[in-house]
């Protein structure tokens, strides 16, 4: 009898199949798939590789080296014990991800910790499901697709050049601070113990030591922003100067366009941010110096929390999910010429629209095969 056989059988019972993951887009799939694939010089940058169902996902983004460096720095930090920190606000499991220096670099939202995910660490949605099942979920949305909605909003923002959504892509991360069930933690401990005790006979056969990675959305962290509630209240008592007011109106119009196109069902004033830089720089030393060289205040908007968008039908009439910005003074003004010139030429191009739809289809197609991504 082979003395290694009992040990091998133990490993086979404990070690799950290798993680099935995604891979970046292959070069042989970049050929024209629609009239725009070879026209106009536009680049298609899907947030997931088109062959994700067949290959391994390695958090590899060759089209976006900056984002890939951020994810690598997050992996290094986790390996060194700097774990993501749970965000206590909200109704789902979401985490501030840090780099090796402890600086926040992103927000990670695992799929199975979404508001209606089975590993959501927040008890409010569980209580709602038990006590009021008739109001559980949103009938116009596919449940547990929020991470794809987050990435989809970023894709629309990128294609339309709105620049209001922080870069968001689908990644896989594992951390002790994520919410795992008891079985996953027990398997992880057992695999680690066997690897340490029998490194040659068992350890080399174990595909991964540690907790299984979670699929979710990773949104780049934006600094210096505060929620719209804060600044809108300030603007009521301290009106913006005319040039800054014009800047804000243009940024606000970009937010409106985004929400209309993705049909966001959860746009309150607490999930879009404003950054207002009120520092005006140094004054000219002499009157002869040009005052145009003085740095002017800047204002920017960031649209976050886009996980409840892309409904497959119109919301029910009794829950219309209105846009809360619709009551703001900026919403009562006609669209400016600048936003029309930016958006209308793109939406009038049926080739562009077709390409955008195809990219969104490829992104959301991952949600159709949950059993193949280890969830």
From TrEMBL:
GO terms for cellular component: endosome; lysosomal membrane; plasma membrane; trans-Golgi network. Keywords: ATP-binding, Cell membrane, Kinase, Membrane, Nucleotide-binding, Transferase. Residues 91-365 form the PI3K/PI4K catalytic domain. GO terms for molecular function: 1-phosphatidylinositol 4-kinase activity; ATP binding. The keyword Phosphoprotein does not apply. It comes from the Eukaryota. Its main location: membrane. Belongs to the PI3/PI4-kinase family. Type II PI4K subfamily. This is Phosphatidylinositol 4-kinase type 2.
């Amino acid at each position: 009898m082979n003395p290694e056989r009992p040990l091998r059988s133990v490993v086979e019972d404990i070690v799950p199949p290798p993680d099935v993951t995604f891979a970046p887009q292959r070069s042989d799939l970049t050929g024209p798939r629609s009239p725009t694939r070879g026209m106009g010089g536009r680049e298609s940058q899907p947030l997931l590789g088109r062959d994700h169902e067949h290959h391994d996902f390695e958090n590899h983004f060759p089209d976006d080296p900056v984002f890939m460096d951020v994810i690598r720095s997050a992996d290094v930090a986790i390996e060194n014990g700097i774990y993501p920190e749970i965000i206590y606000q909200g109704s789902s499991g979401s985490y501030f991800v840090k780099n090796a220096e402890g600086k926040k670099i992103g927000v990670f939202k695992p799929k199975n910790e979404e508001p209606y995910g089975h590993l959501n660490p927040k008890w409010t949605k569980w209580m709602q499901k038990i006590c009021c099942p008739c109001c559980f979920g949103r009938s116009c949305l596919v449940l547990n697709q929020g991470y794809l909605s987050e990435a989809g909003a970023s894709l629309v923002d990128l294609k339309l050049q709105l620049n209001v959504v922080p870069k968001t892509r689908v990644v896989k991360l594992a951390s002790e601070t994520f919410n795992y069930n008891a079985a996953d933690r027990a398997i992880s401990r057992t695999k680690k113990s066997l690897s340490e005790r029998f490194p040659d006979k068992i350890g080399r056969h174990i595909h991964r030591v540690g907790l299984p990675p979670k699929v979710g959305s990773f949104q780049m962290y934006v600094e210096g922003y505060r929620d719209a509630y804060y600044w809108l209240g300030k603007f009521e008592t301290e009106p913006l100067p005319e040039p800054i007011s014009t800047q804000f109106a243009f940024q606000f119009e970009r937010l409106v366009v985004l929400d209309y196109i993705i049909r966001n069902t959860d746009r309150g004033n607490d999930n879009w941010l404003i950054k207002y830089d009120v520092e005006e720089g140094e004054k000219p030393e002499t009157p002869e110096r040009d005052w145009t060289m003085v740095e002017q205040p800047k204002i920017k908007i960031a649209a976050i929390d886009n996980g409840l968008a892309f409904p497959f039908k119109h919301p029910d009439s009794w829950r219309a999910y209105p846009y809360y910005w619709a009551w703001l003074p900026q919403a009562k003004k006609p669209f400016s010429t600048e936003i029309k010139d930016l958006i209308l030429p793109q939406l009038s191009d049926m080739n562009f629209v077709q390409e955008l739809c195809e990219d969104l289809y490829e992104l959301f197609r991952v949600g159709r095969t949950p059993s193949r991504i280890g969830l």
